[in-house]
Amino acid sequence: MTSEHDEIARRHKLAEGIAAEAGKLALGYYRRRDTLVIETKGDPQDVVSIADREVEDLIRKRTGEAFPNDGFLGEEYGLTGGGSGYTWVVDPIDGTSPFVHGMPNWCVSIAVLYKDEPVVGVIHVPCHDELYSGALGNGATLNGKALKLGNTKTIRNAVTGIGANHHVTPQSVGKIVEDILAIGGNFVRLGSGALMLAYVAAGRLAGYYEPYMHAWDCLGGYCLVREAGGWFLPFPSDGERLTKGAPVLAAGPGAAEDLCRIAGINMGGVAAA
Fold it and tell me: What global pTM score does this model have?
């Protein structure tokens, strides 16, 4: 019988291959983005194009061929149940707004969830030719080089990533910015939560906080952060809750306590590596 470790390893290997293929497809659309028809979803800032749908179709097809009993949750087409206990959680292009406006801050995010835990995380950043990859117990890498977080980077001496959308009031976002600046920190918002979580895993950002985010945006990055030695707030993933939004927070060891305080989150609710 195949062990749990082997099952995760098989999916991890596939996720890396699919991420590269999907990134190539997305990059082709990015280079001819002026020809795309852009649609809006919940608000004018929430956009989608055929590129998002085609990339998700590709990932669904590849995972379905290899693991037909796995579940699949994608941003564009929702949740398909499975009987294996494994669920692929995918954002085909996270950062569609930067994508359609010609900025390189977008990525393909692929996660695999098992027993309510992200056990595989792969994020491909085509414009920068970067592949972030991690799996439960195997660590995290960037283009094959191991990622390991220390406690020297804090909110005060590094940059913190934040996210915002129409689910969050302008006042609450302003308070987050104010609190970060008040303790001597600085912040950035790139338009892709998954990419900023990858940057946390790589030590480029001290941490990342977004008051409302979806599973497809965060679970791949969560796996990377954990495997690099960071901290994250567990995402509610049982049943239909997996399809709903929730607060997302991840940080290196030196920033987790301060960022949780700013977010009003009890450190006891943060998962440690």
Answer: 0.93
